[in-house]
Amino acid sequence: MAEQGKKTEQHANQDAPGDEPLVNPDDGILDMDALMGGLKNEDSDAEADDDRADDEVQQLKDQLIRTLAELENTRKRAERDVAQARKFAITDFARDLLSASDNLRRALESAPEDRDELDITLKNLVIGVEMTEKELLGVFEKHGIRKIDPLGDKFDYNLHQAMFEVPDAKTEPGTVVQVMQPGYVLQDRLLRAAMVGVSKSPDDKKETVDTTA
To answer: Residue 208 half-sphere exposure, CB side, CA atoms within 13 Å?
Structure first.
C-alpha cells in the first residue's frame, strides 16, 4: 500500500500545472488549493484559446468579405470600360467623316435656291447630293452622332468655339448669331465644337466671350 501511495503521489505531482508539487512529500497530503488553482488556470487557457480562435475566424470573415467586394468592383469596372470602349470606338472614324458632311453641305449651299430653272442634269446632281447628305446624317444618327447647329442659342464653351463677336443691340449678349461650321457630339462626348459668332453689347468695348472652346 505504501508503494501504491508513493506512485499515486508521483503521478499527482507530475500532473501538477505548475512547478509546485500537489502532494506534500512530507505528509502525503494533497494540496487542494494548488489543485483548484491549476484547474482554473487550465480553464483560463482554454478560454484564451477559444478567444484567439474566434478572433482568427472573424479576421478571415472580414478578409473574405473585402475580397468579394473588390472582385465585384473589378467586375463592374471591367464592364463599364468595355461599354465605354464600344460606345466610343468609332470616334476617329466619325471625326474623319465630318469633313465629307461639310463638303456636301457647302455644295448644296452653292447651288441656286430656285431649282426649277436648273438644267435637268444639274438638277439631278443637286438632288443626288441632297440624298447623299440625308443618308449620311441618318447613319450619323444611327450611331449616336448628333449635329450641333446652335444658331440663336446661348453660347456654351463646352460645345461652341467663338470665332468673333458681333455688336448687336437686338439680341442678348453671349447669343450665337452666326454658325460658320456646325459641331457634332458622339453620344454625350464632344466630337467637334461648332465654330460660331457671338453677339455682344454695342457699348461693350472689351472682349466678353471666352474663345477657348
So the answer is: 17
Grid cell at residue 137: 446624317
- pLDDT attached to residue 193: 95
Q: Cell match 453671349: residue? A: 174
pLDDT, greater one: 188 or 29: 188
pLDDT tens per residue across span 20-68: 566 676 767 767 777 677 677 777 888 888 889 999 999 999 999 999 9
Among 112, 136, 142, which Cα is nearest to 126's?
Answer: 112
The rounded distance, in Å, linking the Cα atoms of 19 and 169 is 106
DSSP string, 154-169: BP-TTTEEEEEEEE-S
The three cell numbers of residue 163 are 470665332
Contact 177, 199 (CB under 8 A): yes
What percentage of the chain reaches a pLDDT higher than 70? 81
Q: Distance (Å, rounded) from C-alpha 193 to C-alpha 208?
A: 19
